[in-house]
Structures are given as C-alpha cells and as structure tokens.
UniProtKB/TrEMBL annotation:
Signal peptide: none
SMART domains in UniProt: ANK
Residue ranges of ANK repeats: 148-180, 182-210, 254-286, 326-358, 403-423, 480-512, 561-593, 639-671, 711-743, 787-815
Keywords of the record: ANK repeat, Repeat
Superkingdom of origin organism: Eukaryota
Protein name: Uncharacterized protein
Xref: Pfam families: Ank (PF00023), Ank_2 (PF12796), Ank_5 (PF13857)
Length: 966
C-alpha cells in the first residue's frame, strides 16, 4: 500500500508540474528541470516502485514545437542543464522508459538518427551514459549521427562500456563504422582513450587494425604516440591469431610511420618491437627525412648510437647517407647542429663527407660556415682525422658549392684565420686558382677580408713561400675585373696589400671602372669615414712596398671618370696624401672628365673650409714637381669655371690673394664674363674687389674693368642690375664706363631709371651722376635702348617722379621725348595686384606729369586724351562713396590712420574725412607720391586696403585734367 501511495503522490506532483509549464517557451522548459529536481528527485527517502510509472502517459498531451517525441526532446535539453538535467535523465531511466525505434518510408528501422547518446560527447555529461544506454537498449540497431556517422558503438568505446560494446558487436554490427568528420573508427577511440580491453574486444570482433582516420593515422600510429609496448604486442598477437597482417610501415599525412612516431616520443621498446616486426628504418617523411635525420636534428648521440645498433641487430640496415628534401645527409644535419661527437660517430659508420646538399655544400662547407673559429677548426679536424683513422677518402678540400665557393673561400669570407690556416695546410697547388661564380679566388677573399690577413700571411710562409705564384693567380680577375690587390686596397687591409705585392701583384692593374689599387685606397667609402687618416698612411705604405719590390706606381693613371689618385685625395681634403702623390710625380694640371684640375678641386671642395683649402692649395704649389710649373691656374672645367670663379662664389679672400700672388689672370673670360663679373654675381663684398685691384696693380697688370660677357654686360652694369650699390660706386670710381650698353642697348642710366622707384632714394642714379661729374666723365643721358627708349622715357614709365627730376637736371633733349602710350600704361597697370601699389603708381604718374609740365614740356593732345581715358577707367572711380562707411565706422582703422601723417600734421584719417574736392587742393601730386611710399599699409586692417586705396586715388589732384579740358 505504501508503494501505491508513492506512485499516486508522484503522479500527482508530476502531473501538476507538467501542467504548470508553458512548453512552447524554452526558458519555462529549463525551469521545469529545476522544479523537477527540488520537488521530485531530491525528495527525502526517494520513491518506491518508479517502474510502475508510465512516463508516456504523463507527456502524451505535451506539445513542444519542432519535436516528434517529447521525452526524447527533453532528454536532449537535459544534457544542457547541468545537475538538474542529469537528475531528470536518471529519473527517466529509473521508470523503465525505453526508446521506441523510428521507421522510414519502407517501414524499416531508421538507423541514421541522432539520439541523446550522440550528444553526450559534446556536452561532457559522461555520468548519464549508463542511464541513456538503459533507455536506448536495442543493441540490434547501432544508431549513427546523420551528419558524421558517429554511432552508439563509438560512445560505448569512448566511455569504456565493455558490456554494451560486446552486445552491439555480438549482434553483428560493423566494428569499423567510421566518424566521417574525423575518420575515426571505434578502435581509434579505444586506443586514444587508453581502453585496452575495449581495443582487444574490437580486434577480436574483426576491427581493422590498419584503418586510417582523417590524418591517415592507423591504430598503430596512435599506440606509438599514446600508449606503450604492451598495446603493440596485443595488437600484433591478435592480428596474428586472426591472420590479419598489420601494415607496419603505414604513413600518415606527414608521411610518418609508426616507427617514426615511436622515435618522436622516445619509446625505445616500441621502436625495437616495430623493427622486429619488419619496420623499415629508412622510410622518408614529408620533408624526405629518415628517422636518422630526425635523431640528428634532435642532437642525440645516444639515440643515434642505439638506433643504428638495434637496426643492425634486427637486420635492418640504416641508410647512413640518405638525403632529405634539401639534399642534406644525416652527417650534414649533425654538423649544422654543431654536434661534433654525433658527426664523428656517423663518420665511423662510413657516412660520406663529400656528399653535398641542394646548394652544393658538403660537410666541410657546412663546417666553414660556423661563427666560432675554434669550433670550425675542431669540426674540420674531426672530418679529416676520423676519415683518415678508418682509411676512408678524405673530404674534398677543393669541392665547390653552387656559387663556386670552396671551403677555403668560405673560411676566408667569414674571417676565420685559424680555420684558413688549417685548411691551407691541406690544399693543393690548384686551390689558389679556383674561382667562385663572381670570379673571385681565395686570394680575392683574403684581400676582401680584414680579420684573416694573419692567416693569409701564415699561408704564404708555410705553403706558398717556397714557390712563386704565377701572375694568373696573384692578378686573377673577378667579374668586375678586380684583382685581389683591388679588394685588399678597397678594404684598406694593409697586411693583405703587402702580402700580395710581395708575391708579385701588379700595383697598376685597372678594373672595369679604370680604378687602380691606389685609387681604391683613396676613394671615399660611405662605410668608412676615415677619421684617423688611415687611407693616407696606407697610400704611403703602398708606394713604399711597391718601391721595395722594384716596381713603380703610375700615379697619374685615370679611372673612367678621368680621376687620378691626386683628384681623389684633394676631393677628400687629404693633404698628406696629396703631398705624397705630388712628390711621386702626380700631375697637378691633369684634368678629369669634368675638366677639373687639382687647383679646381682645391677651390671647390664638397664642404667649403677656407683654412683647409688654403693649406691644400699651398701643398699643391709647393709640392708639385718643377716639370709641371707654372700651374695652369686659369684652366676651365666643362662648366667654364676657373679656380677663381669657385673662390669668389665661396668668398674665400685669402685663397684669392694666394692665386693672385701666383699670377692668375683676372681678365680671362667665359660666358659669364671675367673675374669682376663673377665677383658681382657671387655677391662678393667691396673689400674682395679692392684686393683684386690692389694685387693686380702691385704686379703692374691692368684689370679690364669694362669687359663684357656674352650678354654684353660689363661689371658695372651687372652691379646696377643686382642692386650692388657699394660695388657699383667703387667700379665707377675705379674707371668703369657708365655709357657702355649691353646687348639690349641698356646703359647704367637706363637700368637705374627702371629699378629706382623710391622718391627719396634713387641712390644709384645720384651716385652715378655725382661720380661721373667728379671724374668729368660725360653721361649719355639721351642714349636709346634697342626699343628706342631713353632713360627719361624709362623713368616716366616707372612712375618715378624723383628720377624724372634727376634726369631733367642733366639736360636731356625734350624735343625728342615721347610720353608712354595708353597701351603701355594699361599693360603696366594690369600687372598691379596690390591696392597700395595702385596708389603709388597713380600718384607717381601725376607727379611725373607735374614735373614735366613745370620744365616746359607740353603733351600732345592725343596723349592727354589717352591718359585721361586711362585714369577715368582705372583710377578715378565714382562709386567709392559706397564704401565710405567701412572706413569711417572701423575703430581699428581710425586708431592706426590717425598715427600716419602726410605732411607731419595731417593724418591719413583726417585726409579721408575731408571732402574730396577740398582734399585735392591741399597737396601736390609730389606730396601724395612721397606719402604713398611712406605709408605703412601693414599697420592698417588688411580687409580695408582696397577701400583705402580707392579713397586716396579719389583725392589725388586733378589740376592737370582740368587744365587740359579747359
């Protein structure tokens, strides 16, 4: 009765709980599991006779969207609900609920179906496996996942449910059913999880021991990685009993065999068993590496010794010289790993040291690439001595890799002096002649290197000193036509240079660029700034050694740029080197391809320094041999420049004086003119020019002050044009002719009239007339340029009233004067953009008209009309009143304008405030013109410049126009 009471109570609680849930909502369903645990499962004392409960009756009216079987759907959801979900699953199993099979359209059981057992693996709820297998206990059907084929048998094997797996297998289910995603059969899972009895069961029921999973690993691969030798013995034993051969050399996706996997995991007993079962110790992996390659890469002498010996015992000889995909043998691999003991062991097993990798590098090449010299020597000795001990052919000392380098080449390139010394004791006479792909022999590399020259010396003494090196060896040419001596000189290797010269190297050999070894010593190198003048000392030693071997240095040899060693020394400012070369017969007058001689280079250094240049120049003068004197100081380069031109451009007075004292000709001209032209052009000060005159006069020579350049410009014309006022006046006082015209017909007066605009300056014109009057030098005031314009016409066209006054004071011929045309005036105004300039030009034009009329000049009626028309269109605008408010209301303008005085009394602000008509009567055009030049526009608001200019133009006097109209 008590049991029946439990069943009724449980039924009541469960029915009430089921009715209270809204099954269409996922959160409510999850809440069901929590309520179920607290109200039913966790009841104190539990429940009796749960098998009397028919769960299907309770859930038959429950409708969950998307589900065919409510209880199975809840089992799936329970797997995601932690402990409450597990409680529900255990409860369902306790009630004796069994899954009903599902049938397809042919009324056959649908084995391709997902059950909660499949979801156990992804959810991790292994505690409910047994409960679920009670629910899904029809083992005649091995349900498999539709997506990947993962079956109930996989689950049983993964969780080591031997009884269930055996029941499934007894019902003749396929033991090799495969998970299509991973390729794993149940046997793979059993091995991976370490379930040995399960693996044995599967094997006995026919599981394929060679079935590959997705990475092509067989169960034997997994055993070698995950398990021990007992597993392997079990596998071999059962398969032998079944008569099923095990593929002992099966390879996975990396081409690893079980033997290679066992080696990777350092399982000696497994390795030994596999070899005993016929494993091939020489099969290659994806990288074409054999097991021995792998052992050598691990730097393991003990393993290599054991492996080779055990293979020998099992009658499985190891391919000692097998090559991987890079062509490396195990010996080369060991040497690359710096494992000398392992290499010695392999050599003892008859490893061939002369086999090369894909780059042609042998074992000896590999050793010669070591960074440590002592280690490289030890490794090389290991190769030679071990082979000698076993009476085997020695490593080939002259073997060349794909770049043509022998081991001796590599040792020299890497500055390994002790290794070079050792190898040199073994080389044949032909070794020195072998060249690599760049054409470089061992001697080239000796010259190229700095650190191994001591070894090179030892080589010479110990090996080659007894025999003379033939010229084809000591002067061998590489691809750039460099000899070993070139490379030694380029790297400034003193000992190597001496060694090569003693052995007969040609000190004057030129390479493809025409450079001799002496050029190479003196060339500037970006990697070597030579702060301690090493190149100078080396040049001195080079010449000394050449003299000792009774040869001569061609100090005037020129390279492809025409540079001799002297050019290079002077360009770098090497005084001692220059002195040495000059004493050896260097020609200071020799020009390079640019036409630069020694003195041109001295006077045009890359970074001008007058003190250094002065010392270099004195060295050239004093050290040059008599046969080259006097020096060609006036030599011109391809740009037409002389040494003096460069000095003037750098402003180096002391050097100019030195050249003048040495007799340089200042009258020598080029396209730019003579020295005076250069002085003006390069902005030399007056003192420089005065010094030039003084030095010339001291030697009773005459300086051509009126020389003309290609454009017809004299120095004085150039001084006017370049605003060199002080120099202009000096040249005039020194006798320059102001009346000489350039190619455009312009004289000094023409240029002054065009360039001088300031009303209170016109300094050049004033100075010109004053100096010429003092010299009683007539000035051609009416000279015409190529366009027929006189200085007065230019002054008028420049709107310079002050200049017009100066010209008129000189008494020009007004009868031939023509006022500028309307088109000329318009063209000049079209180029005016700033409003203040408009005011200057407008006031200047009126002031010029005023000056001309005062001097009695009468304008032609047509000219007056043209000027009136122009001013009406461009100056006297009638709408400026529209802008008056802008000036009158602006406080910033008012403040600044009150500070600007037109005559010392009336301010700009007052002038603007005055009525236009009264303002026109207050001041003359000349006063307006002077005020226009004095007005500081920058103090006024920029936004009002244009308005202010128009107002000022409105207030200009119109007397000229009123008189003309009258």
């Amino acid at each position: 009765m008590a049991a029946m009471s439990d069943v009724h109570e449980l039924s009541s609680i469960l029915s009430s709980l089921i009715e209270s849930v809204d099954w269409a909502i996922e959160e409510k369903r999850l809440d069901f599991f929590r309520k179920f645990s607290t109200s039913i499962w966790e009841r104190e004392g539990g429940w009796n006779d749960l098998d009397l409960i028919n769960l299907q009756d309770f859930f038959q009216d429950v409708d969950i969207p998307g589900s065919e079987c409510t209880i199975e759907y809840l089992l799936f959801e329970a797997l995601n609900c932690e402990q409450e979900g597990e409680n529900f699953i255990e409860f369902v199993a306790s009630t004796g609920y069994k899954d009903a099979p599902q049938y397809d359209e042919n009324e056959e059981i649908n084995e391709c179906r997902q059950t909660p057992l499949h979801a156990v693996a992804s959810s991790g709820r292994k505690n409910v496996v047994d409960a679920l297998f009670k629910i899904y206990d029809d083992y005649s059907v091995n349900y498999a996942e539709p997506m990947d084929g993962y079956s109930h048998l996989h689950v049983a094997c993964a969780y080591n449910r031997l009884d269930i797996a055996e029941q499934i297998l007894e019902l003749r289910q396929d033991p090799d059913i495969t998970d299509r995603l991973t390729g794993e059969a149940p046997l793979h899972l059993a091995v991976f999880e370490g379930h040995r009895e399960m693996a044995e069961l599967l094997l006995r029921y026919g599981a394929d021991p060679n079935w590959p999973c997705i990475d092509e690993s067989t169960p034997l691969h997994l055993i070698c990685r995950e398990q021990d030798v007992k597993w392997a013995r079990m596998l071999f034993k059962i398969c032998r009993e079944r008569g099923t051969p095990v593929e002992i050399n099966a390879q996975d996706c990396l081409k690893f065999t079980p033997l290679r996997v066992a080696l990777n995991w350092e399982k000696r007993d497994l390795v030994e068993l596999l070899l005993q079962q016929g494993a091939d110790p020489n099969l290659r992996d994806e990288e074409k590496q054999t097991p021995l390659h792998y052992i050598c890469r691990k730097r393991d002498l003990e393993w290599a010794t054991w492996f080779i010996n055990i293979c020998f015992e099992k009658n499985r000889p190891v391919a000692i010289d097998a090559r991987d995909k890079d062509g490396c043998t195990p010996l080369i691999v060991a040497l690359r790993r710096h494992e000398l003991e392992l290499a010695e062991f392999l050599l003892g097993k008859e490893a061939n040291p002369n086999l090369s990798d894909n780059e042609g590098a042998s074992a000896l090449h590999t050793v010669c690439r070591y960074h440590d010299d002592d280690e490289a020597v030890a490794a090389a000795k290991t190769l030679f001595e071990t082979r000698a001990r076993f009476n085997k052919p020695l490593p080939l000392i002259d073997a060349q890799d794909e770049r043509g380098n022998t081991p001796l080449h590599l040792a020299a390139m890497r500055d390994r002096p002790r290794l070079v010394t050792y190898l040199a004791s073994l080389v044949r006479d032909t070794s020195a002649t072998l060249a690599n792909s760049n054409g470089r022999t061992f001697l080239h590399l000796i010259g190229r290197s700095r650190g191994n020259v001591i070894a090179a010396w030892q080589i010479s003494d110990d090996h080659w000193k007894r025999r003379a090196l033939p010229p084809k060896v000591v002067d061998a040419r590489d691809a750039a036509q460099d000899t070993p001596l070139h490379l030694a000189a380029r790297n400034r290797s003193s000992d190597a240079i001496e060694l090569l010269l003693i052995h007969g190297a040609d000190p004057n050999a030129a390479n493809a660029r025409g450079l001799t070894p002496l050029h190479e010593i003196l060339l500037e190198r970006s990697w070597d700034q030579d702060p301690d003048d090493k190149s100078e000392r080396l040049a001195e030693k080079f010449i000394e050694v050449v003299r000792k071997v009774r040869k001569t240095v061609q100090v005037n040899a020129q390279d492809e740029n025409g540079d001799a060693p002297l050019h290079l020394a002077l360009r770098r400012g090497k005084k001692k080197a220059a002195e040495l070369l000059l004493s050896q017969g260097a020609n200071p007058n020799l020009a390079n391809a640019m036409g630069d001689t020694a003195m041109l280079l001295v006077c045009n250094p890359p970074t001008p320094n007058e003190d250094e240049a002065l010392e270099l120049a004195k060295t050239v003068f004093e050290s040059s041999q008599e046969c080259f004197k006097p020096l060609q100081l006036e030599a011109q380069n391809r740009n037409g420049w002389t040494a003096l031109h460069y000095l003037l451009s750098h402003g180096q007075k002391r050097l100019v004086r030195l050249l003048l004292e040495r007799g340089i000709d200042l009258n020598l001209t080029d396209e730019c003119g003579n020295a005076l032209h250069q002085a003006v052009f390069h902005d030399c000060d007056v003192d420089m020019v005065k010094m030039m005159f003084e030095c010339y006069q001291a030697t009773n020579r005459q300086l051509d002050i009126n020389a003309r350049n290609i454009g017809g410009w004299t120095p004085v014309l150039l001084a006017v044009h370049m605003n060199r006022d002080e120099l202009f006046e000096f040249l005039l006082r020194s006798g320059a002719d102001p009346n000489i015209a350039n190619a455009e017909g312009e004289t000094c007066v023409h240029l002054a009239c065009e360039l001088d605009h300031e009303p209170r300056l016109c300094s050049r014109a004033r100075a010109l007339f004053a100096i010429c009057a003092k010299r009683k030098q007539p000035v051609r005031i009416d000279a015409e340029d190529n366009e027929g314009r006189t200085p007065l016409e230019r002054a008028v066209a420049s709107h310079s009233a002050t200049m017009v006054d100066l010209i008129l004071d000189q008494g020009p011929d007004l009868s031939s004067f023509l006022f500028p045309t309307e088109s000329y005036l318009k063209a000049s105004w079209l180029e005016v953009f700033l409003p203040q300039t408009r005011f200057i030009m407008a006031s200047g034009t009126l002031a010029v008209l005023d000056r001309l009329t005062e001097r009695g000049y009468e304008l032609d009626r047509s000219d007056v009309l043209a000027i009136e028309t122009f001013f009406s269109s461009w100056v006297f605008v009638h709408d400026s009143a529209n802008f008056e408010g802008k000036l009158y209301e602006d406080k910033e303008f008012e403040t600044q304008a009150k500070e600007m005085k037109i005559d010392g009394y009336t301010s700009l602000y007052d002038l603007i405030q005055k009525p236009v008509d009264s303002a026109r009567l207050l001041y003359t055009p000349m006063q307006f013109y002077e005020f226009a030049h004095e007005l500081d526009w920058l103090k006024l608001p920029r936004r009002l410049w244009n308005v202010c200019a128009w107002h000022l133009c409105e207030r200009l006097p119109r007397k000229f126009f009123e008189q003309s109209s009258g």
